Amino acid sequence: TDNGAGDFTINWARAFATANYAVFGQALDATGVVMMESTTSAKSTTVVRLITKTVGDALQDPGTGVCVIAIGAQ
C-alpha cells in the first residue's frame, strides 16, 4: 500500500509466527534514498510499514523501485 511519498505498508500473504522477524529494504536508484522500518506503527505478523528518505531526512519515493527481504519463522 502506498501511504504517501516515501511511506509504504507491506501486507504478507503468509503470516510470520511472531512479529520478531527482520526486514531489510533497498531503494533501486542512486539518488541517496535509503529505506528503513517506520516507527509510526509497530509491525505485526502480517504487516510492516517501511519508509524511504533522502540523506537530508525528507520522505521521498525512490525513482526506480525497491527490493524488500523479510526473514523469520512462519
Quaternary class: single chain
Output the radius of gyration.
12 Å
Strand tally is 6
Task: Look at the helices and sheets and give the structural class.
Answer: mainly beta
DSSP helix count? 0
Please outline the major beta sheet.
Answer: 4 strands, antiparallel
Percent of residues in β-strands: 35-45%
Global mean pLDDT: 90
Across the major sheet, the strand order is: 1-2-5-4
Q: Between the first and last Cα atoms, what is the distance in angstroms?
A: 22 Å
Query: What share of residues is helical?
Result: under 10%
Low-pLDDT runs of 5+ residues are: none
How would you spell out the order of helices and strands?
A: EEEEEE
Shape: elongated
Set out the fold topology.
Elements: E1 2-4, E2 7-11, E3 22-27, E4 34-37, E5 47-53, E6 66-71
Antiparallel strand pairs: 1-2, 2-5, 3-6, 4-5
What's this entry about, in short?
0% of the residues lie in helices and 42% in strands.
Write a structural description.
The structure is a single chain. By secondary structure, the chain is mainly β. It is 0% helix and 42% strand. The protein contains no helices and six strands.
Tags for this entry?
74 residues, mainly beta, 4-stranded antiparallel β-sheet, two-stranded antiparallel ribbon, 6 strands
